[in-house]
Design a protein that fits this description.
Elements lengths: L6 E4 L5 H4 L7 E5 L9 H4 L5 E4 L13 H13 L5 E4 L2 E4 L2 E7 L5 H17 L4 E4 L14 H12 L2 E5 H10 L4 H6 L6 E7 L2 E3 L2 E3 L8 H12 L6 E4 L7 H15 L14
Parallel strand pairs: 1-2, 1-12, 2-3, 4-7, 7-8, 8-9, 9-12
Antiparallel strand pairs: 5-6, 10-11
């Protein structure tokens, strides 16, 4: 089903020099809103499949979506010759106010109607398929009617989108809801995955935060290992969005992810690998 395979990474300018030396890297993802009129030179030089990842479309907004943002996603997809684009099952604005964060939508049938309508508009404006990502939520709405799995399965059924399964977000939500991460993961529509995210986080004020600035916790790697042992196989990528570690630490993190997923390592031939 997926146009992607193997181990990838979120391309960021701060780590572009490291990424350039990852011989076995299978694909990259780039924040769509960060791409200008031309592709970043060091990204284009990789000649890898690259997925524009939107963060501002606000697919869950009841007031609809800004078609100019859809047009920009389409432009970036064409610029990068992308196999697909991705966005979040979330909203970032309402009533003219910008939240500045990805916020969870209520898991209700009314919210499904909104999402399905906005996704259909988005799909009609894109030259490639759309995949949507499960987010980490620090709270649940009191009027939730469906579980995460039921909600995502219904959304996929209505729209035909595929899923960007963020394994770290599954862990975060399970931990914050005092549930078992593996049980929660198995309840998701894992037969409709386009590719997976994995990222780091940390506990603050008793809640787990999906920071993308911390190392991937051992517990998240163990969740990936358990999924791999059960037969789970999907393209998978590391997201890192700040507090970039030294190159050797980033390579170690990529190796740990590859090992947990039963994939070939991609770090053997870098200048830091030989130190």
């Amino acid at each position: 089903m997926s146009a992607l395979d193997g181990l990838g990474i979120g391309w960021r300018p701060e780590i572009a020099g490291i990424i350039a030396q990852l011989d076995g890297l299978a694909f990259c993802e780039v924040i769509a809103e960060s791409v200008g009129t031309t592709a970043p030179e060091s990204l284009a030089a990789l000649s890898l499949p690259t997925v524009p990842h939107g963060i501002s479309l606000s697919l869950g907004s009841a007031e609809g979506i800004d078609t100019d943002r859809v047009d920009n996603l389409a432009r970036v997809a064409a610029l990068l010759d992308a196999p697909l684009v991705s966005e979040h099952v979330a909203f970032v604005r309402a009533g003219g106010a910008e939240a500045g964060h990805l916020l969870p939508v209520p898991r209700t049938y009314e919210a499904l109607d909104v999402l399905a309508r906005n996704i259909t508009v988005t799909q009609s404006g894109l030259p490639v398929p759309l995949a949507v990502e499960n987010i980490a939520a620090l709270f649940d709405w009191p009027d939730d009617e469906l579980s995460d799995g039921e909600f995502l399965a219904e959304l996929i059924e209505r729209t035909g989108v595929t899923l960007v399964l963020d394994i770290a977000n599954v862990y975060a939500n399970a931990l914050n809801r005092r549930r078992d991460p593996w049980t929660e993961l198995q309840r998701l529509p894992v037969d409709r995955i386009a590719y997976c995210h994995i990222a780091g986080g940390s506990v603050r004020d008793g809640m787990y935060h999906d920071t993308h600035t911390d190392p991937v916790p051992q517990e998240v790697l163990e969740l990936l290992t358990e999924a791999t042992r059960s037969g789970f196989a999907s393209a998978l990528m590391l997201e890192r969005d700040g507090h970039y570690p030294p190159a050797a630490e980033l390579l170690d993190e990529l190796d740990a992810i590859a090992d947990a997923a039963g994939m070939e390592r991609v770090t053997a031939n870098t200048e830091w690998s030989r130190l």
